[in-house]
Amino acid sequence: MISIKGLSKVFNTKDQEVRAVDNLDATIESGEIFGVIGYSGAGKSTFIRLLNRLEDPSGGTIDIDEKQISSLSKGELRLARQEMGMIFQHFNLLWSRTVEDNIAFPLEIAGVPKEERKKRVDELVELVGLAGRGNSYPSQLSGGQKQRVGIARALANRPKVLLCDEATSALDPETTDSILDLLVDINAKLGLTIVLITHEMHVIRKICHRVAVMEAGKIVEEGDVLDVFLRPQEKVTKRFVDQVMGDPDREDSLALIKEKYPLGEVAQFHFVGERTHQALISELSRKFQVNINVLHGKITQTQKGAYGTLIVHLDGEKEEIDRALEYVKETSVEVEVAIDV
Amino acid sequence: MFEQLFPNVRVEDMITATNETLFMTFFSVLGTFIFGLLLGLLLYLTGPGGLWENKFANWITATIVNVFRAIPFIILILLLFPFTDFLVGTIRGPKAALPALIVGGAPFYARLVEIALKEVDKGVVEAAKAMGAKYRTIIFKVLLPESTPALISGLTVTAIALISYTAVAGVIGAGGLGDFAYFYGFQRNSFDVVFVCTVLIVIIVFIFQFIGDFASRKLDKR
Question: What would be the CATH architecture of the domain defined by B2-219?
Answer without folding.
Answer: Orthogonal Bundle (1.10)
